[in-house]
Structure formats: structure tokens, C-alpha cells
């Protein structure tokens, strides 16, 4: 069964390609290589034993997308990762984010309109902003987005709901990721930030390997037990498996329309706890200092994952220590084997 994976050479996309193959699906990758590396295709081949089908395609080019769909009608599912996702950059370049994230989504939906496609959308806990109640459930109010990036996720979910409400043949699931971290157990694929990492864990591993001089903890005066921000970190392999579970759910009788799930562990970890877990797991002392708070950060958020366990039949299995050890193994691999 062919599953189209847009952004399939990216961090979460590549791990999802592996889990799709493990579950007996046949992934077809689309990627425009604007934020990924073609060499990940060879890395995937080392893990799954063959090079998955790959098409370099800019999803904002509606003609190219409809030509692709014409030539690839035998797709039964679609997992849509391809989007710009840097919170800070989206504040500086909102139009770039609205153009890319909406044109790509709408072109895909138009190209396969009318086909009973199982469509998985990569959403984010960013839609919750700072929840009033923790852990946050899927029916918590979606708050005013803190960034154009977060806004594109909120509006995209509304677009998908409207498409289903209009009676389209699509079945759609939005997965609201919490914080994806870690790497595949083979250390052959992982997070490949371009330039200075925006996110915590790649900054930790690049500091540990000496690529960065020190980590700055963005604030320790929050209203949390140790003063640093709390997030729900989830291993990228657990996250990848949630996409397979979503495809399976939509293949079942009785699934109709649209649903949304929190994809996290249900546990919150502070920045200082993540640093401690990294040091204890790897034995590497991390050079860090406390700095000013970062604009737009929410203080604390972690997910209620009851609905995912009960309805998506999925739950995270890997712990924070495994997240740290796998992220570190990948950083060491990439230092020895630059792509
Ligand atoms: C985590 C915590 C920082 C870097 C964003 C998006 C989310 C998803 C993941 C795409 C925060 C602190 C960070 C550093 C630090 N994106 N931090 N020093 O902002 O929770 O989520 O990325 O899928 O949608 O919103 O992740 O890793 O940037 O930050 O202290 O050098 O680490 O302040 O508290 P975030 P993050």
C-alpha cells in the first residue's frame, strides 16, 4: 500500500519512512530539499535495505503537484510533513511561512481531491499556546498563536476540518506533536538543523561535541519547580509510529471524517532536567549558563495522551534517557561522517 510522505527526508519524515516500511507499507517520498539533505536517502537505504521512491518537488507549484498526482494515482495514504517550522524565523518572515505552508497544503488537497485518501497532517502543541489547564487535552481551547508558524498550524487544521465538512472523500487525522527529540537506534538518521540550532536538544548535543561553546538556558525564573520551562519531550521514533497508527486508524471501518490527537509522553520535563538527563546518560558534562527568557516561549506545556492511547491505539514507549543517548549517538556519528 503506497503512502506519500511529503518532507520525507526531514527529521520526523525520515523516521516515519522507516516505521512505515517496518509496518509493511510502501513509502513514496516527496521533498524539495529546502531544509533536508538528499544523502538521507542513502542513510534510509542502510536501515530499510532499499532506496525508497523519491521525487524532488516544490509543493507550492500547483501544476507540478497536479502532474505528480496524475502520474501517481495509486497512493492510498498521505502524510504531510513538508512545511517551514522555525518559530523565530516565522516572526521575521511571516509571508514566507503563510505562502509555503498554505500553498503546499492546498495544492496537495486539490491534487488528490475526490480520492478516498487517508491524510495525516503534522500539527503541533503550539496551537494550545499556554494552556489554562495541564496536562492539555485535545478539546482545550486553541489559543491565539504566538507566531505565524503556530498560526499556520491552527489555520491548516481549520482548512482540513472544512474540507471534510464539505463532504470530501478524504479521511483526515491531525497529530499535535509536543517536542520531538532523539534519533534512530542505528544513529544513521537524526535531526540535521541547518546553521545554529533553534531547538534545545540539538543545541545540547552540538555543545557537548564542541561545535558550540556553551548552551544558554533561556530563563530560570519561571513559575516552575526549578524555574526553567517545562515541555513534553517525545522520542522521534515513538512519534513516527504514531503516524503509522493514524494511517491504520483511518483504514478501519467506522472511521469517518476528521480527528485530532496529542502525540506526547504525557510527562513534562524542565530544561534543567533535560540537561541533567543528558549528563547522567552520556557522562558528558555540559557547559551552560542561565540567560534571558526567549520571546514567545510558553512557560509549561505537556499533553494528556489518554485519547491517543484509547482511540489511536498508540502510546510513547521510550524514556528521556533513551532520547538523550540516541541524540548523542547521532551527533557523534555525524561528526565522524558528515553528510
Ligand atoms: C524547548 C525549551 C526553550 C534552546 C518548538 C515549536 C514546536 C516544535 C518544537 C516543530 C524552551 C529552551 C531552547 C536553547 C533553551 N517545532 N531552550 N536554550 O520552542 O518548545 O517548540 O520546537 O515541530 O512546534 O514550537 O522547542 O526546543 O526550541 O525549546 O533554554 O538554546 O528549551 O526556552 O523552554 P519549543 P525548543
From TrEMBL:
State the family it belongs to.
Belongs to the NAD(P)-dependent epimerase/dehydratase family.
Question: Whom does it interact with, and what assembly results?
Answer: Homodimer.
User: InterPro entries recorded for this chain?
Assistant: NAD(P)-bd_dom (IPR016040), NAD(P)-bd_dom_sf (IPR036291), UDP_G4E (IPR005886)
Gene3D superfamilies from the entry?
Answer: NAD(P)-binding Rossmann-like Domain (3.40.50.720), UDP-galactose 4-epimerase, domain 1 (3.90.25.10)
Q: Extract one GO molecular function annotation from the record.
A: UDP-glucose 4-epimerase activity
Q: In which pathway does it act?
A: Carbohydrate metabolism; galactose metabolism
Keywords, ordered alphabetically: Carbohydrate metabolism, Isomerase, NAD
| Keyword Protein biosynthesis attributed | no
Q: What is this protein called?
A: UDP-glucose 4-epimerase
Name the residues that span the membrane.
Answer: none
Chain ranges of the NAD(P)-binding domain: 4-325
Q: Name the needed cofactors.
A: NAD(+)
- List the EC numbers from the record: 5.1.3.2
Q: Which domain of life is it from?
A: Bacteria
Q: Which reaction does it catalyse?
A: UDP-alpha-D-glucose = UDP-alpha-D-galactose
What CDD domains does UniProt report for this protein, alphabetically? UDP_G4E_1_SDR_e
| UniProt xrefs under PANTHER family | UDP-GLUCOSE 4-EPIMERASE (PTHR43725:SF47)
Listed Pfam families: GDP_Man_Dehyd
Amino acid at each position: 500500500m503506497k503512502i506519500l510522505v511529503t518532507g520525507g527526508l526531514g527529521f520526523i519524515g525520515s523516521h516515519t519512512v522507516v516505521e512505515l516500511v517496518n509496518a509493511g507499507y510502501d513509502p513514496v517520498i516527496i521533498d524539495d530539499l529546502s531544509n533536508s539533505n538528499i544523502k538521507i536517502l542513502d542513510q534510509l537505504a542502510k536501515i530499510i535495505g532499499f532506496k525508497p521512491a523519491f521525487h524532488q518537488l516544490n509543493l507550492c507549484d500547483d501544476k507540478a503537484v497536479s502532474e505528480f498526482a496524475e502520474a501517481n494515482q495509486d497512493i492510498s495514504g498521505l502524510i504531510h510533513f513538508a512545511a517551514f517550522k522555525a518559530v523565530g524565523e516565522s516572526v521575521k518572515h511571516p509571508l514566507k511561512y503563510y505562502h509555503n505552508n498554505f500553498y503546499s497544503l492546498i495544492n496537495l488537497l486539490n491534487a488528490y481531491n475526490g480520492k478516498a485518501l487517508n491524510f495525516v497532517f503534522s500539527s503541533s502543541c503550539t496551537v494550545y499556546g499556554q494552556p489554562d489547564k495541564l496536562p492539555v487535552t485535545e478539546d482545550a481551547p486553541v489559543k491565539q498563536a504566538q507566531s505565524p508558524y503556530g498560526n499556520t498550524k491552527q489555520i491548516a487544521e481549520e482548512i482540513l476540518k472544512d474540507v471534510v465538512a464539505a463532504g470530501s472523500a478524504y479521511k483526515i487525522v491531525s497529530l499535535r506533536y509536543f517536542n520531538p527529540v532523539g534519533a534512530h537506534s542505528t544513529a544513521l538518521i537524526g535531526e540535521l538543523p541547518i546553521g545554529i540550532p533553534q531547538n534545545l536538544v540539538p543545541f545540547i548535543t552540538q555543545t557537548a561535541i564542541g561545535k558550540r561553546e556553551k548552551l544558554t538556558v533561556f530563563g530560570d525564573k519561571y513559575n516552575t519547580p526549578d524555574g526553567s520551562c517545562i515541555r513534553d519531550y517525545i522520542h522521534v521514533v515513538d512519534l513516527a509510529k504514531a503516524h503509522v497508527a493514524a494511517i491504520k486508524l483511518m483504514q478501519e471501518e467506522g472511521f469517518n471524517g476528521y480527528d485530532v490527537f496529542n502525540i506526547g509522553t504525557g510527562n513534562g520535563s524542565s530544561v534543567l532536567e533535560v540537561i541533567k538527563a543528558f549528563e547522567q546518560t552520556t557522562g558528558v558534562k555540559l557547559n551552560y549558563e542561565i540567560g534571558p527568557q526567549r520571546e514567545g516561549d510558553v512557560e509549561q506545556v505537556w499533553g494528556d495522551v489518554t485519547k491517543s492511547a484509547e482511540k489511536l491505539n498508540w502510546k510513547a514507549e521510550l524514556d528521556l534517557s533513551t532520547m538523550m543517548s540516541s541524540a548523542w549517538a547521532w551527533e557523534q556519528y555525524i561528526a565522524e561522517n558528515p553528510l
